[in-house]
Hints:
Layout: H1 3-14, H2 32-46, H3 61-67, E1 69-70, H4 73-85, H5 98-117, E2 125-127, E3 140-141
Antiparallel strand pairs: 1-2, 2-3
Amino acid sequence: MEILxxxxxxxxxxxxxxxxxxxxxxxxxxxxxxxVFDLVRVAQADWAHQAVAxxxxxxxxxxxxxxxxxxxxxxxxxxxxxxxxxxxxxxRHHLRxxxxxxxxxxxxxxxxxxxxxxxxTRRTWATAVRGRPSPGTASMSSLPEAP
Length: 147
């Protein structure tokens, strides 16, 4: 099975809530920061009706790029788990079962590691969180080019 064919439904499972936005696919000329910024614009439009007057988010992919830092696979698993399972605003409200989210995030990380071992294409996990992962953090990965 192609790695993208298996990863797509797994990440879809993690992002099945209207509170969670995800993007995956083959590496392209578009940077991770640009992909994240696209998701930010979608989320901002979806939630504009609940935004606080005067609130602003990142204004460019360059701002997002400045905030991203590489993380190890274990950190990416924790980030994906927390993003999928916990509400960012109401931390006691669970979006889905945490154990399910962790199993799926672990499988995604293993698939990416397998792809990395079999390819020279660079993979990146990135986060805007410094220190320990916690609910409300973000992660993104790039995948190998499709054949």
